């Protein structure tokens, strides 16, 4: 199947072609026809499978004809949990609507509300919003949601996790009863199904991947290490392998800040991104990371939602998440759209429970791979396959041929910076 088989109008098909896409992903192939038929939809897919285009493309087509919105009115509303994801969705809308005469606006907290109010005065075809800022704007009589034709809830599972359910209920009461509703979620939990019952009318269900599975193009393994030596091991991996684009996950905001300070002392350019950072800082940090100005971005789970970087080669779990489903979301930042990637977890003895929960969830055992010189004092339990963990020599590059090919591709696509005078890493 090609995009031409999905019934997209010429301006949208042309924009898709100009981005170099010819074949829709499974979630796109199954969702787009449903949305074009005007039906409500519950869709589930792994991260990195083209989920955003699965609702943006048909939404644009539904809006391509029809009257302009009146003052303060909105024709399509997309609600999403984080600022970064909202901005990413708007970027996709801009790209795919380049040959259409449709207006859009993204609104979220942490930035001045006045420009958002001024733009809404004219009305917009598509509004992308985080729940809190949307309700703030409505409270200031800056937006009218009673004329919304299409509602999209993106990452509904995360909005429930982040405590937005009451905000979603409030938003729901502001919307007309007759509208098309699309709900996208990584999982169809009982809570999601309960939400869908109150918001969707006879929805079509699309589920293109087994629940909580990981992307096949991502190689996964763990490096057992004592908790106090994780930072030193991370520095060793980055310097020894000459990695230049690494997304590192920390369990806490404080831990993220502390790790960045340690990396900077080792002359490894790094930046933190989490909820306590201003929106200006988060936007600048993400832009610098994408542009290769910093090698490492340390993020918390919530701040990392919406980070969409083509060919991101390395994701490191500095701390294992407390919620095992977050492991799947984390490593989904790499291996996107069929590209190869690797996910490495630095696991200490006090994280055995989290490790077991993750392996139970993904129904797989992660390879134990000790790095010589960083062997832990307290051994992790053996994998279900049994046997001792593999021990790698310090000079042996991480990831073998697969990772080398990723690094080589990045070296060819982006000019390497000249070597820096590295300071010795702290043990």
Automatic annotation (TrEMBL):
<dbReference type="InterPro" id="IPR050079">
    <property type="entry name" value="DEAD_box_RNA_helicase"/>
</dbReference>
<feature type="domain" description="Helicase ATP-binding">
    <location>
        <begin position="32"/>
        <end position="206"/>
    </location>
</feature>
<feature type="domain" description="DEAD-box RNA helicase Q">
    <location>
        <begin position="1"/>
        <end position="29"/>
    </location>
</feature>
<dbReference type="InterPro" id="IPR000629">
    <property type="entry name" value="RNA-helicase_DEAD-box_CS"/>
</dbReference>
<keyword id="KW-0378">Hydrolase</keyword>
<comment type="similarity">
    <text>Belongs to the DEAD box helicase family.</text>
</comment>
<dbReference type="InterPro" id="IPR027417">
    <property type="entry name" value="P-loop_NTPase"/>
</dbReference>
<feature type="region of interest" description="Disordered">
    <location>
        <begin position="369"/>
        <end position="427"/>
    </location>
</feature>
<dbReference type="InterPro" id="IPR014001">
    <property type="entry name" value="Helicase_ATP-bd"/>
</dbReference>
<dbReference type="Pfam" id="PF00271">
    <property type="entry name" value="Helicase_C"/>
</dbReference>
<feature type="compositionally biased region" description="Basic residues">
    <location>
        <begin position="411"/>
        <end position="427"/>
    </location>
</feature>
<feature type="short sequence motif" description="Q motif">
    <location>
        <begin position="1"/>
        <end position="29"/>
    </location>
</feature>
<dbReference type="Pfam" id="PF00270">
    <property type="entry name" value="DEAD"/>
</dbReference>
<protein>
    <submittedName>
        <fullName>DEAD/DEAH box helicase</fullName>
    </submittedName>
</protein>
<keyword id="KW-0067">ATP-binding</keyword>
<feature type="domain" description="Helicase C-terminal">
    <location>
        <begin position="233"/>
        <end position="379"/>
    </location>
</feature>
<dbReference type="InterPro" id="IPR001650">
    <property type="entry name" value="Helicase_C-like"/>
</dbReference>
<dbReference type="InterPro" id="IPR011545">
    <property type="entry name" value="DEAD/DEAH_box_helicase_dom"/>
</dbReference>
<keyword id="KW-0347">Helicase</keyword>
<dbReference type="InterPro" id="IPR044742">
    <property type="entry name" value="DEAD/DEAH_RhlB"/>
</dbReference>
<dbReference type="InterPro" id="IPR014014">
    <property type="entry name" value="RNA_helicase_DEAD_Q_motif"/>
</dbReference>
<keyword id="KW-0547">Nucleotide-binding</keyword>
<dbReference type="GO" id="GO:0004386">
    <property type="term" value="F:helicase activity"/>
</dbReference>
């Amino acid at each position: 199947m090609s995009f031409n088989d999905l019934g997209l109008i010429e301006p949208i098909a042309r924009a898709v072609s100009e981005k170099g896409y010819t074949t829709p992903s499974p979630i796109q192939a199954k969702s787009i026809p449903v949305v074009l038929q005007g039906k409500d939809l519950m869709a589930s897919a792994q991260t990195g499978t083209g989920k955003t285009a699965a609702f943006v493309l048909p939404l644009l087509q539904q809006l391509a004809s029809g009257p302009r919105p009146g003052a303060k009115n909105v024709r399509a509303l997309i609600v999403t949990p984080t600022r970064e994801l909202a901005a990413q969705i708007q970027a996709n809308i801009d790209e795919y609507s380049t040959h259409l005469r449709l207006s859009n606006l993204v609104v979220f907290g942490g930035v001045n509300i006045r420009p958002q109010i001024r733009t809404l005065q004219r009305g917009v075809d598509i509004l992308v919003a985080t729940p809190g800022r949307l309700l703030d704007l409505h409270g200031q009589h800056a937006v009218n949601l009673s004329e919304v034709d299409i509602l999209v809830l993106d990452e509904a599972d995360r909005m429930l996790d982040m405590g937005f359910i009451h905000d979603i209920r409030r938003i729901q009461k502001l919307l007309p009863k007759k509208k098309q509703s699309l709900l996208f979620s990584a999982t169809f939990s009982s809570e999601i199904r309960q939400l869908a019952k109150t918001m969707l009318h006879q929805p079509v269900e699309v589920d293109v991947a087994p629940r909580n599975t990981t992307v096949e193009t991502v190689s996964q393994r763990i490096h057992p290490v004592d908790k106090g030596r994780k930072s030193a091991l991370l520095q060793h991996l980055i310097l020894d392998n000459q990695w230049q684009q690494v997304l590192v996950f920390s369990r806490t905001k404080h831990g993220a800040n502390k790790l960045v300070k340690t990396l900077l002392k080792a002359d490894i350019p790094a930046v933190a991104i989490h909820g306590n950072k201003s929106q200006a800082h988060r936007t600048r940090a993400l832009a610098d990371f994408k542009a290769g100005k910093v090698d490492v971005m340390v993020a918390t789970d919530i701040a990392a939602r919406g980070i969409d970087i083509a060919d991101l080669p390395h994701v490191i779990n500095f701390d294992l998440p407390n919620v095992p489903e977050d492991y799947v979301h984390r490593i989904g930042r790499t291996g996107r759209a069929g590209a190869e990637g690797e996910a490495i977890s630095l696991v200490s003895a006090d994280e055995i429970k989290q490790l077991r929960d993750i392996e139970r969830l993904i129904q797989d055992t992660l390879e134990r791979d000790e790095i010589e010189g960083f062997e832990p004092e307290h051994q992790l339990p053996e994998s279900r396959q049994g046997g001792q963990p593999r021990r790698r020599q310090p000079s042996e590059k991480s990831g073998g041929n697969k990772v080398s090919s990723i690094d080589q591709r990045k070296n060819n696509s982006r000019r390497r910076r000249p070597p820096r005078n590295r300071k010795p890493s702290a043990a």
